[in-house]
Amino acid sequence: MCPDATIHVLLLTSAEDLDCTPGFQQKVFHINQPAEFIEDQSILNLTFSDCKGNDKLRYEVSSPYFKVNSDGGLFALRNITAVGKTLFVHARTPHAEDMAELVIVGGRDIQGSLQDIFKFARTSPVPRQKRSIVVSPILIPENQRQPFPRDVGKVVDSDRPERSKFRLTGKGVDQEPKGIFRINENTGSVSVTRTLDREVIAVYQLFVETTDVNGKTLEGPVPLEVIVIDQNDNRPIFREGPYIGHVMEGSPTGTTVMRMTAFDADDPATDNALLRYNIRQQTPDKPSPNMFYIDPEKGDIVTVVSPALLDRETLENPKYELIIEAQDMAGLDVGLTGTATATIMIDDKNDHSPKFTKKEFQATVEEGAVGVIVNLTVEDKDDPTTGAWRAAYTIINGNPGQSFEIHTNPQTNEGMLSVVKPLDYEISAFHTLLIKVENEDPLVPDVSYGPSSTATVHITVLDVNEGPVFYPDPMMVTRQENISVGSVLLTVNATDPDSLQHQTIRYSVYKDPAGWLNINPINGTVDTTAVLDRESPFVDNSVYTALFLAIDSGNPPATGTGTLLITLEDVNDNAPFIYPTVAEVCDDAKNLSVVILGASDKDLHPNTDPFKFEIHKQAVPDKVWKISKINNTHALVSLLQNLNKANYNLPIMVTDSGKPPMTNITDLRVQVCSCRNSKVDCNAAGALRFSLPSLLLLSLFSLACL
């Protein structure tokens, strides 16, 4: 290829497309380099259409020495000789933009770049000097209709070697998404095969080169930028909802409530994505149909009515719904629109104090009763869901004994006045309370609590027949157990709280678990009807408990209950007993110890241990047993010699330390067993053998029966 050979990309418009295609009707022009471009002399006419009337059409030329007038005529601003090999003309309206190329045949190179010329970052630079391949951008509107493929440009090489071919590469050709663009390898025509979507890919960066018949690169690759021209095919959308704003009642005019912004997927550098906002509808429309205003550019919603109209208590509804519309094309009628709903809540402030519905309240309560006696009602115009409405009650006078409390009913906001300590009619039949009410939240500075925020409650106590009261309660006496039947323990005393009714009192036994007691119904004297036993299962820790009733003569009668605690002192009335009462020993045992005996006594110390252990009446010739003291409560029984296999009954006598002492004799059954080869056999010890004293007693008993 010749060093001066150049390749150009021709931008073509499809003649077959019957629809209006925005852009230049002809995109590549060839003009010969004159000796001089003459000032104000027309060079050529360009035809551009945005298919919508060319409103606000502007032209820009890559050289500052040329200008295009509103009719599309290109002319020089002064006499000039050298302008380079190429001029670019950029046309733009709010709806479309395009680029045309003027190839100056015979022109000389000059420095400069398309990006610098138009300050348009998406376009490729003007080809560098000395490069043999020169390309310029291809501009294609998105959303083009059939037919496809359609030519969009042409690579021109006026001095291309024979049999050389054009090759196109890059994303959109041989890289994903593949097959969108292709080039005629012989003619250099560039075509698009399908509809483009700028919102998917706005710019395709391709590369063009020439190759020989073997595919070897001759020139290039040279960048070829395909720019997808935006069309207004996306509506504004509100993506951040729901939109809920709050403004305090009484806020000054111009208070900002919230901001609403929409998104438009179209090119943000064009009016296709230039949004304007307005309020389409306000619900409700009272007290003014224009309660709010939205900044058309920022989307800020502000109040436009006086603070007096933002009074939550006088509004028909404290919630407003606004239909907000966003329109692209800077709000022109041709722009696309999107809508969203803004909900604005008029928030309450505590500008109304609570007031009692009446100045005085009446209540009655029976003496001795507790619980709620009256509900105090208040009115408050503030929002029932806030602390500006919720009431807090305080008793400020008339409650020295803390007999009353007041709490707020969370559902009704009423004050529930309660008796928490029983009242006594005989002490006071009337009570007067002074109660104040406030809000949980503080009032605004210009509002205060007035006389209606306090009320008086008159309480009447009703007399009821109260049961007699024992004094003291419990009653306590101490007596020895086993005192004689009929012994007087005490005389109970019960009084009637109804001192003004002069009633009589009768007494009766209510609970007497062991059946030991009797009470005189007139004078209340308590005496015994049975022997008192400290060791009885009805006695707990030496204390016996009984209950008595005192019944007045009222109609109906009232009853009081008194408790008697009898502490029983111990006497030595229980003999001790031994344990265990059965033992085993081997007939050939080397250790002649038989068993360790223990003793126990139901009485209390000193009527218990130390115990004395003895073998009862063991004769000297038959003396084969021995008992030895271990401690105050235990003794060891042992043999003095081995015995034959048999069962033996050994009488053991145990005596306590009471005064006088108590003695108990218990037979200890000793089994002498055969122990051979680690086996214990007691079966042959069935014959019962007695000690000599036992045999003598048995003989005497037999003689007595003859």
TrEMBL record:
Cytoplasm listed as a keyword: yes
Ranges where the Cadherin domain occurs: 140-238, 239-356, 357-470, 471-578, 577-695
The keyword Transmembrane is annotated on this UniProt entry: no
Function: Cadherins are calcium-dependent cell adhesion proteins. They preferentially interact with themselves in a homophilic manner in connecting cells; cadherins may thus contribute to the sorting of heterogeneous cell types. May act as a negative regulator of neural cell growth.
Quaternary structure, from the entry: By contrast to classical cadherins, homodimerization in trans is not mediated by cadherin EC1 domain strand-swapping, but instead through a homophilic adhesive interface which joins two elongated EC1-EC2 domains through a region near their Ca2+-binding sites to form a tetrahedral, X-like shape.
Protein name: Cadherin-13
Subcellular location: Cell membrane; Cytoplasm
Superkingdom of source: Eukaryota
PROSITE patterns the UniProt entry points to: CADHERIN_1, CADHERIN_2
GO cellular component, one term: side of membrane
Gene Ontology process terms (BP): adherens junction organization; calcium-dependent cell-cell adhesion via plasma membrane cell adhesion molecules; cell migration; cell morphogenesis; cell-cell adhesion mediated by cadherin; cell-cell junction assembly; homophilic cell adhesion via plasma membrane adhesion molecules
A molecular-function term among this protein's GO annotations: cadherin binding
Keywords, ordered alphabetically: Calcium, Cell adhesion, Cell membrane, Cleavage on pair of basic residues, Cytoplasm, Glycoprotein, GPI-anchor, Lipoprotein, Membrane, Metal-binding, Repeat, Signal
Membrane topology: Lipid-anchor; GPI-anchor
